[in-house]
Amino acid sequence: MKNKKLKRLLKNKKFIIFMILLLVLIICLFLLKGIFFPGGGSNYGNRLDGIEKISFTKKDQEKINQFINNNEKVTSSKINIHGKIINVIYNVNKDVSLDDAKNIATSSLEKFDDTVKGFYDIQFIITMTDEKGEETQTTDENGKTITTVVKKFPLMGYKNSSKEAIVW
Q: pTM, whole model, 2 decimals?
């Protein structure tokens, strides 16, 4: 009895088309779920492949930090690492020029190991907490005079892992 009902259902073309469409819909839903809700992989994808082979220890970081802090023009410094980016952040005295601040970064870049410079992107963030800035006055299109304070800092420089120099 059940065999006859099953044979009759299988002969019904509407039922077969419905089952095929239902199967295709289920497969599509699984594929869309994978696209819109990916598994719990790394936030960085495969960008960090090989990072475990590069040695940039706390001791290396302290050596660079010490070098920067030994400069009398620097008041404080720190190093933060986020994935494949090393942020070198330091504060300079109020009498330091832009060129002097850039030279500190360039000379500290020489303290990094070549393998570290070839793998990590290095970003320099230079601040000056005591900077007063220069007041400038401009006139807008309505004739109103606007006074603004222009500051030279913070200054940011970036060295890509595939490049040799810092871009400011």
A: 0.68
